[in-house]
Amino acid sequence: MIASKVMQFGLVGLAVAQSRLDAIPTGFNASRWAWVSNENPLLAVIPGEFNRSAFDAPSAAKVSDSRVAAINQQINQTSFVAYDPRFFDIIGPDATVEQLQVLPFQVHEAPCFIPETSQLFFVQWGPPGGGENGGHNYQYLLDLKTNNLTTLQTDPPTWNIHGCVYSKGKLHVVTDGGPHETGYLATIDPSTWERRTILNNHDEQPFISFNDLDMDREGNYYMTDSLSGWGRYLHPYGQPTAPTVYFVNGTTLRIKPLMYLENGNTNGIAVSADGSSLYVADTGASLVRPSGRDEQGPRDLWAFDFATSKTTGQKLPLLTNKRLLTRAIQYFYDGVRVSRGGWIFGAGGEVVDVVDPESGWILGSIRMGGGQNGPVNLVFGENELWVVGKGVFGM
Ligand SMILES: *[C@@H]1O[C@H](CO)[C@@H](O)[C@H](O)[C@H]1NC(C)=O
Ligand SMILES: *[C@@H]1O[C@H](CO)[C@@H](O)[C@H](O)[C@H]1NC(C)=O
Ligand SMILES: *[C@@H]1O[C@H](CO)[C@@H](O)[C@H](O)[C@H]1NC(C)=O
Ligand SMILES: *[C@@H]1O[C@H](CO)[C@@H](O)[C@H](O)[C@H]1NC(C)=O
Ligand SMILES: *[C@@H]1O[C@H](CO)[C@@H](O)[C@H](O)[C@H]1NC(C)=O
């Protein structure tokens, strides 16, 4: 597991970078930063042979040209890869990536930052590990001041939390379901660890297995019901619907599907900073039952706008203006979050990418050390980005 901290400092003016990997703006550390652009002729037209799987990082491509191999090796030692000059401004010259905890090689998920106590809540997810069929009925708590990691159990215990959002003093979580229950939406009080289930069905139909959620400023929920937990046998129940994005009115708990995916899978989800758009990752390239990978499968980040009422002008739980923002350069985006400034942060492969919400350009990648390190989900702190995933190496 990696819990990494990206320290973000204020904006800094920058001299626009050039087309060589060493031409990063003044003030940025060349050991930590790479500027990658097709203005570099060696990258626009790669000499000799080259190939890579969509699931690998570009710098992990097999290349026959030794100069390109050297560029890839250089990229593999950095923490930040910029594809767009704006990325330098967004991250700033003083940012570093640090590994805080090394845990058994396993997926970690559902990070929630608790500002009052400076704690990071997260979980170990799925098999191998855990109890019955890889299930987990406990969670992790990291004290961010002392880096002391402890485990906890909610009251009553909560099985297989997969997504978490902190809002107004509570953790709002969704679960995959467990050995004796289907998935649900619940709140957890971090001062008592009491859990209250608030919704466990859709018109008396069970959910498949929740993957993630986000909330808007009004306290409404956007939840992804996905094949992932069901695919890993985390509960013995069936697959009642296709992967679905649900809207839940936080006041009335009335629930409505926003989007179905007949071919593909739902995963990360995030509401835009101004609340007018929704970003949804389709990670159908990751196959379930049996688990596997489909090079041609969806690895896409979609954007939608919310429709507004013609009579009242109010935002409606209806998606319009579907557009492909981008396809992940490597792997797919598992966790997706939006920063205060509106940038989309997507975790997957060996990176957390920053995506421009308007154009869909990937502005840059935050690397977590490469190799076996795989960021899975993220949450913003005050001036840090907390990342959980799977992996062994640190930076
Ligand atoms: C640049 O980054 C490297 C690697 O993180 C570090 O060892 C070095 O001290 C940094 N140099 C400066 C001038 O900060
Ligand atoms: C290139 O990589 C793809 C994906 O891993 C693989 O399916 C294909 O066989 C490779 N092609 C060559 C010529 O090696
Ligand atoms: C870590 O936290 C646990 C639970 O609060 C406590 O029992 C333990 O003493 C702490 N360890 C350290 C090294 O502070
Ligand atoms: C949620 O329900 C409340 C109470 O009926 C209503 O006022 C509000 O407009 C609803 N929100 C949305 C986004 O539909
Ligand atoms: C990148 O660096 C990591 C960590 O040192 C290493 O394990 C991995 O093999 C490297 N990847 C490539 C493609 O060189």
TrEMBL record:
Gene3D superfamilies (UniProt xref): TolB, C-terminal domain
Domain of life, per lineage: Eukaryota
UniProt xrefs under InterPro entries: 6-blade_b-propeller_TolB-like (IPR011042), Oryzine_lactonohydrolase (IPR052988), SGL (IPR013658)
Ranges for domain SMP-30/Gluconolactonase/LRE-like region: 150-384
Signal peptide from the UniProt entry: none
Annotated protein name in UniProt: SMP-30/Gluconolactonase/LRE-like region domain-containing protein
Species in which this protein is naturally found: Apiospora rasikravindrae
